[in-house]
Specification:
416 residues; alpha/beta; four-stranded parallel beta sheet; globular; six-stranded mixed beta sheet; 35% helix
């Protein structure tokens, strides 16, 4: 459904043009674009002096607590095209038990819990922006490869917008994701391969089916939705950015988007020059960014035998690899990989001790924090943000088979 126009001022947007992230050449806004002429992502650019004159912290504070409060730094020109399903500002949740274990201050270990968003994941941010822009630009048919959550968000927003949707999932995508995608209106297929293989099907079908390819970073607007994580984070921390951000990195759109957001916030005078160390978190079974970082390369070699149960970070090759690595290095951050055993041990422990059910990718960020601490890469007193990118309720959980026969004598002492 369109965004409630009573909840947003009809302010102008400030998009000036699109820019190739690799070569810097310009492209007209308000036209349909995929990649640049050299096959690299396009970034949305704004008249930031105009934004600075139009948007103050007081104005921002007066607005509803949703991602559209940042309208001047977002690309949708006509509010009638905003296909909102209720994109709230997600909370920062402390982990006091984790902090106690390592002698840290609980106020310094915070999870930004993106599972509170529509369709239960941070993919809602990028997809509401991409689909709203698709509606504005007159796109009628969209296709996408997905490891699960992005496809679910695409299906939901496209159904709201009346856009036909085709989604292709690796055959081991979590069952709940596949069913969710199909239930919300997308034509849905499993594919015997990885997300990159699904991407080839989407690309190869563009001419035959006439769909728009909404693969990660192959259009300009998912970054703009994801960058709202950085905008929100700055405001929630009273305009003082944290020391480190641990981000689960597959395609890396959110990490790239936040890095862009911090630059824009400084240019409109909302923050200073301090930046957090950006930590790209991957799984040991699929760590192309980690490999490239450690080798000093700007581009990552594809992983041929990718494997991890954290499906959201099982991306063998990312088209925005150089943007991820640039942000990591410019921030004096690093890339780090954790194994599946550590991921699920952390998930189970945090659920039992701090009461927060992390998705596997979110648990990977906490596991990476612990490993980074062990290696001396960070300090326990650093203010650290972990991104829990989806609700843990979407993922398989350990069995719970204890049973009581109410017709028999109940041994209460055996309950522990």
């Amino acid at each position: 459904m369109p965004y409630n126009l009573n909840l947003i001022e009809k302010r102008p947007t400030f998009v000036t043009h699109l820019e190739c992230a690799y070569e810097g050449d310009s492209y007209l806004s308000d036209k349909i674009h995929g990649l640049s002429k050299v096959g690299k992502p396009l970034l949305v650019r704004y008249d930031l002096d105009g934004v600075k004159a139009a948007l103050t912290k007081d104005i921002l504070e007066s607005r509803p607590m949703d991602m559209w409060r940042w309208r001047e730094l977002l690309p949708v020109r006509d509010t009638a095209n905003i296909m909102s399903l209720g994109e709230i500002v997600t909370p920062l949740i402390p982990l006091p038990s984790l902090a106690k274990k390592y002698g840290a201050n609980a106020a310094n270990l915070l999870v930004k819990d993106e599972g509170r968003l529509p369709t239960g994941s941070f993919k809602a941010r990028g997809l509401v922006m991409a689909v709203s822009m698709a509606k504005e630009l007159g796109i009628k048919k969209i296709a996408m490869p997905t490891n699960g959550n992005a496809g679910a968000a695409l299906a939901a927003y496209c159904s709201a917008a009346g856009i036909e949707t085709y989604v292709f999932c690796p055959d081991d995508t979590p069952e709940v994701n596949v069913r969710e995608i199909a239930l919300q209106g997308a034509k849905t297929w499993r594919v015997n391969g990885f997300i990159n293989d699904c991407g080839h099907i989407v690309a190869d079908g563009e001419e035959a089916k006439g769909w728009f390819n909404l693969s990660t970073l192959k259009e300009p607007y998912r970054i703009e939705g994801k960058k709202t994580m950085g905008l929100e984070l700055a405001e929630q921390l009273d305009w003082e950015l944290p020391d480190v951000i641990f981000y689960p990195t597959g395609g890396g759109t959110g990490l790239i988007g936040m890095w862009k957001a911090f630059d824009e916030l400084e240019k409109i005078g909302f923050i200073g020059s301090k930046r957090p160390k950006m930590i790209a978190v991957q799984a040991t079974g699929c760590a192309p960014i980690v490999n490239a970082f450690e080798a000093g390369e700007r581009h990552a070699k594809p992983i041929l035998d990718a494997h991890t149960a954290a499906a959201g970070i099982r991306v063998p090759a990312a088209i925005g690899d150089f943007l991820i690595l640039d942000a990591v290095r410019e921030s004096n951050g690093f890339a780090i990989a954790v194994d599946d055993e550590a991921i699920f041990e952390v998930r189970d422990r945090i659920a039992a001790t701090d009461g927060l059910l992390l998705c596997p990718e979110g648990a990977a960020t906490v596991a990476a924090w612990e490993l980074s601490l062990e290696r001396g890469l960070i300090d326990a007193q650093d203010k650290a943000i972990f991104f829990n990118c989806a609700t843990g309720l979407k993922y398989p959980m350990p069995a719970a088979n204890a049973f009581i026969d109410r017709h028999q004598l109940i041994d209460y002492d055996a309950m522990g």
